[in-house]
User: Fold these one by one.
Assistant:
Number 1:
Amino acid sequence: MNCCWKLWTRTSKTKPSEKNLRHKIDFRVTHYAGDITKRPPTAGTLFKNSMQALVQNLQSKEPHYVRCIKPNEIKSATAFDDERVRHQVSYLGLVENVRVRRAGFAYRQRYDRFLKRYKMISQFTWPNFRSGTDKDAVRVIMDEKKFTDDVKYGKTKIFIRSPKTLFALENARNELIPGIVTLIQKTWRV
């Protein structure tokens, strides 16, 4: 045969060294440059691909939240306990939540927690911000990344209107983490 590719299947002509190939799962291609064997994807590869598809799917969506409030303890459709409902509404912070959601802010976080998570994406806040409060540091990050139109600053929390802004912050953070890990490893190994 003058053909460059020759597909070996599991037949009586199969060489003894190829008997370990499983029928319809593995196959071997004989090529002028050498044999090529294809194996099924590993569990790790399947899991990684599944997680990537899930993350891509989640990033294309906008979150919606459902809060359930029990109207009474006796599980009756006709009974309504005002005191119990007021307690649940105040405990869950639903009034504030509704007010913020009406304003259109999908994400909120305390300044200290936000800074702790995203301080590495700005050269002015990494490794430590010493020019003011956590609120000032968060302002520096958001100004540097040009997200000022999508953000409002409260007394103790930052409010972000669009999930896309949050995803952009997460992507910037994820790009920097391997370099930070390498830096830490270098420091401790020396």
Number 2:
Amino acid sequence: MTDTTTTSTPTPTARITREDVLAALGDTDPNRTNASAIRAILGRGGNTTIQKLLDEIRAERAAPAVALDTAAPPAAPTALVDAIWSAAWSHAQTLTFARLDRTAAERDQLAASLEVLTRDHEALLADVDELREALAKSEESLAEQIESEGVKLDAVGEHVQQLSAHLALAQAETAALKQQLEQAAELARRDAELKDAAHQRDREHLLDQVAELKALLYSSASASAPGSAQAPRKR
């Protein structure tokens, strides 16, 4: 079974205002009621807030009404107005003349400063002209030096090229000489190997001859020894 009961969300209580308290009072004298009675009529609000608003309403209604005077204002005292106007005019004149004096002094000071600045400006222009002339002379001198140094640099460049050519030739000759030395070393190595081989062959040949001589001597010694048998001759 499905529960269809809906719960209502409570709405927040609105704040009590002065208009709410006045509406609850109606024609009732605020001094003959209290905050609890007003709250019972409104059905909401706090006693403190209602009491505060009720006290304000009581104070306003207890204050006596001020009657406005509708009579025409009295005429202004002419002598007093003239005296004030005269004093104000004199003071204004004094301030104006003082301001004019200060302005004139400031103008004279500015004129003197302008004259000094004008002289300084003319002196600076003269210095600038001198600097321009000096700069032009320096540029001409520098151009001449650059041209002269350019000629020197050309000569140095040619000398460097010549040295480079000599260096390349020397390197080529060195490479050729190195190759010749390597070839000579190779030939010397081969000649030494050939000589060693020849010496080895001569040594071996001599050793063979010595061995043959030893064998011959041994045979001769054996044949001449007593009691040695002679080998039969072939027929």
Number 3:
Amino acid sequence: MLGRIVLISLFALFAAITSASAQTQDKYSVETPQGKPESHDGQSADLKSEVQRMRVILGQMQSNLAFVQNTTTPLKHQFELEIEMWQVALDEMDHRIRETGHSDSERPEK
């Protein structure tokens, strides 16, 4: 009986997270104009804003994880792994942004 309750609770949580993820994806979808290519500074600013939005979503994922019961379940472990994966990816993007900023400042002006 307890197993059924846990299974139903996890299914409901997964459905809620999936729904929230779809809504968030629609909210943050970005259309790129087909005009002239952006400058490097514009691309850098766009990348920084994308990383900030992704960090907000990562925070939402972490807070959603709090609703999963404290017991170790495959679903909770999967959420933990996904959060960790996104954290690593965002840290790498931040590192690249910083490297690009340093390399741009070292280039002589034309």
Number 4:
Amino acid sequence: MSNVKSLKIYNRAIELVGKIYKLIELNPKLSKDFSLCDQMKRASVSVPANISEGYCRSQKYFKNYLGIAKGSAN
């Protein structure tokens, strides 16, 4: 079994986290809304976390975790 970092979707999710954090950092108006920023950060981090956790399990569970990750991204 290869490493989760070899998955394109995982790497794209990691890129998304960086973009979300940068967006918040560069937008002073947005960064004033702590609750929204916190939710955006937690949701973005949840995507690669769920991909990673599901990857370590069976294919059945991996599909489920991908669904959870998709929900966090929406």
